[in-house]
Known about the structure:
The chain is α+β, with helices and mostly antiparallel strands. It has 3 domains: 3-145; 183-247; 270-325, Muramoyl-pentapeptide Carboxypeptidase, domain 1 (Orthogonal Bundle). Helix content is 34%, strand content 12%. The protein is built from 11 helices and 8 strands. The strands form 2 sheets. The protein has a 6-stranded antiparallel sheet with strand order 1-6-2-3-4-5. A hairpin with a 2-residue loop joins strand 3 (108-116) and strand 4 (119-127). Helix 1 (3-11) packs across helix 3. Residues 152-177 and 242-253 have low confidence and may be disordered. This is Peptidoglycan-binding protein. Residues 150-180, 222-276 are annotated as: Disordered. Residues 187-235, 274-325 form the Peptidoglycan binding-like domain. Pfam families: CHAP (PF05257), PG_binding_1 (PF01471).
Amino acid sequence: MSVSTMISRAEKDIGLREPNYIQEWYEDRNGAAYDYNFPWCNAGITRWSFDSGNYEAVCFGRDFAYTVGHAARFRAKGRWTRDVRGIRRGDIVFFDWGGSDDLARIDHVGLVTSVKGGYVYTIEANTADMCKRRVRTASTIAGYGRPAYTSGGKVTPPPKHASSGLSGYGHGGGKGMTSVRGTRSQQRIVNAAGYSPKLVEDGVMGPKTVAGVKWYQGELGIKQDGDWGPNTEAAHKKRAGGKGGSSTPSRPGTRAPDWPGRMLTQPPVRKSSECRTWQARMRERGWSIAVDSWYGPKSERVCRQFQAEKGLKKDGIVGPKTWRASWTAPIT
């Protein structure tokens, strides 16, 4: 019951592809809603904690496939930290690809193996349909949970301003930065202001994004240091009339098409263009589903599992709520 046993167990699954034994195990324990190729990032965390004797510490004695639910449990137990301050080996780190720290928007989860040089090193299940090691930056981290590992004494949550070796605040990104806005949001604002060539809105604070922020700071008439700190935020809001301008745009590439006005359901099995649109979106999210325009039993099964993942009514019907939820950021 320790950090080392948790990480050692996760390392045994590196290279695991899908479908796999973790999904089968989770279905056996939690029922038919998981009888298909469902996203298994949090199921992986659950299995590793179960096998390593850390089930109570990591999962509070219950199974999790829904990342938002797991993060909420950490928060309810007083073991949740919203940004990257204090993050360390053994923590359970949660990601939002949209760059926010909104718990309800969490998309993915991983196990921290180390923190060094401004980067978080992880092992993650269901990343590119595999279990792999990953290297992450603050720009995608919504927060982390601190399990109460028992080896070496009780591990307490980090102090409010703990040092982690990972520089920056919230989702600022780069080493040594004090950014107060998510990297993807910075990229959108810089692009909207007319920067050329346009930045790739990928949430990564690389040299091109830093150059774009410097350019925008020049447009604002403030110090051009490439760090979107409080001064840049204030100048941006002033330019936008005090309302933040494009500070809360719709998440790129995730805005749902207009609701087609009729449910996707069966029987009878029906073919439609809106079904094809929905199937294509679910395939983008990583679900194994044919994009054939036919809403049949396999599509319904994917729908039920997706609804279970998102905490929606598990009726297998793509109605307005399920349709909109399908265009939130995908789990990868």
